[in-house]
């Protein structure tokens, strides 16, 4: 397979990792450090949707196992809701699960459904009820012009619409229509009564006071606008569930630590292949004389909180990496308006590749994304192989690789 890009240190392939991995030689890489899709459908991206996630993980992990040298490590990030499937797939492929690294951060963004709002919206946006009303209105043969003339409003189209903004009038407006309508069925009478009572919260929508002031002159007779504070439940059922949601704020991501089975003892394997162990001294907190690398890393916010609440500044026990919801411009390539939505901190990825790769070794990332792992590997003195399926992300990787030479590494353990 012809690489998309290749130089003395980096090889980048464009294609599905299952297909590209099959072309790589057996036992040809020292370590795999990657951030695969989490199967959460993040931002609606198709690459983050795998129907049978565990089996898919097993399939690419089988190929990763083949191309790794005996004793080679794989570090793979996972989502908190799906990492167990990742772990099972990796284990089923033949890897040994050695540990898990937790990457903690303080400023994740919660993505929870507001239950009270959902209850209001469910009733408010009862489109089926509105369409039932407008369908009956159309069946009478009445026109929007006739409705406007009878009611003194300009909203006749909404009482006939089958698509855009169908509506049910208040009882006051509907009473003005009765003289030009046939006998009204009981089900339609009920819809009008319920609409006027505010039973359906869409009929009592949250409205900003300025919006009411702008619209009141020409539509107040049609819409009974009520002003409530943003976020205030309207229905009694919604009020009961105010403050309830469906998800916690994300504050950590797990990273699977897996190893290909050894050939002989650890010592035998290290001597034969240069793999099978982790580089403790190169990843100590605060340098080569620092503390033993833990299976937990933190960001600056967590570090600050630890130092406030514990004597002696306990953040000194943990590697600290900056985390931002949106990575800084320098670490977030953007080409023609396209940027990758899930970019890991460069310093974190440098620490990880250094942890599991022998000097001069080769790091593989089968899900290259914007190329953070590739950049990290090269900056640490390793060779790198990347695979990326999405064509739109290839220019991001190339932009990142072109500027590798001018990035200083400023990891200082407890502070960065």
TrEMBL record:
PROSITE patterns: N6_MTASE. Belongs to the N(4)/N(6)-methyltransferase family. Pfam families: N6_N4_Mtase. Keywords: Methyltransferase, Transferase. Residues 29-398 form the DNA methylase N-4/N-6 domain. GO terms for biological process: methylation. This is Methyltransferase. InterPro entries: DNA_methylase_N4/N6, DNA_methylase_N6_adenine_CS, RM_Methyltransferase, SAM-dependent_MTases_sf. Transmembrane segments: none annotated. It comes from the Bacteria. SUPFAM superfamilies: S-adenosyl-L-methionine-dependent methyltransferases. One of its GO terms (molecular function) is N-methyltransferase activity. Gene3D superfamilies: Vaccinia Virus protein VP39. It comes from Schaalia turicensis ACS-279-V-Col4. Its EC number is 2.1.1.-.
């Amino acid at each position: 397979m012809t690489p998309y890009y290749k130089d003395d240190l980096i090889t980048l392939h464009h294609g599905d990792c299952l297909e590209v991995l099959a072309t790589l030689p057996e036992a040809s890489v020292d370590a795999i450090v990657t951030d695969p899709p989490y199967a959460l459908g993040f931002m609606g991206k198709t690459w983050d949707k795998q129907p049978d996630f565990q089996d898919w993980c097993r399939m690419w992990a089988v190929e990763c196992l083949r191309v790794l040298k005996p004793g080679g490590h794989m570090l793979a990030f996972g989502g908190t809701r799906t990492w167990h499937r990742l772990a099972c797939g990796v284990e089923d492929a033949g890897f040994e699960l050695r540990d898990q690294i937790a990457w903690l951060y303080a400023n994740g963004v919660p993505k929870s459904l507001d239950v009270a709002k959902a209850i209001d919206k469910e009733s408010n946006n009862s489109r089926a009820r509105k369409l039932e009303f407008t369908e009956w209105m159309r069946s009478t043969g009445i026109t929007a012009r006739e409705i406007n003339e009878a009611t003194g409003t300009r909203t006749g189209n909404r009482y006939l619409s089958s698509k855009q903004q169908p509506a049910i009038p208040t009882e006051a407006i509907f009473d003005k229509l009765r003289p030009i309508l046939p006998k009204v069925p009981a089900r339609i009478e009920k819809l009008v009564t319920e609409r006027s009572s505010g039973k359906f919260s869409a009929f009592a929508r949250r409205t900003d006071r300025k919006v009411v002031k702008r619209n009141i002159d020409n539509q107040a007779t049609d819409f009974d606008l009520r002003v409530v504070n943003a976020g205030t439940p309207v229905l009694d059922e919604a009020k009961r569930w105010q403050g309830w949601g469906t998800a916690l704020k994300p504050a950590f991501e797990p990273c699977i630590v897996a190893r290909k089975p050894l050939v002989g003892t650890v010592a035998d394997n290290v001597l034969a292949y240069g793999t099978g162990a982790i580089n403790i001294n190169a990843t100590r907190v605060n340098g080569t004389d620092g503390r033993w690398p833990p299976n937990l890393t933190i960001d600056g916010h967590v570090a600050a909180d630890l130092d406030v609440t514990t004597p002696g500044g306990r953040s000194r026990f943990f590697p600290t990496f900056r985390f931002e919801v949106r990575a800084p411009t320098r670490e977030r390539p953007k080409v023609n308006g396209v940027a990758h939505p899930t970019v890991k901190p460069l310093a974190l990825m440098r620490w990880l590749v250094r942890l599991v790769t022998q000097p001069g070794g080769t790091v593989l990332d089968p899900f290259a994304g914007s190329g953070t792992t590739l950049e990290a590997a090269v900056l640490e003195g390793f060779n790198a192989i990347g695979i990326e399926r999405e064509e739109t992300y290839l220019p991001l990787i190339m932009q990142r690789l072109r500027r590798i030479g001018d990035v200083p590494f400023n990891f200082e353990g407890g502070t960065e």
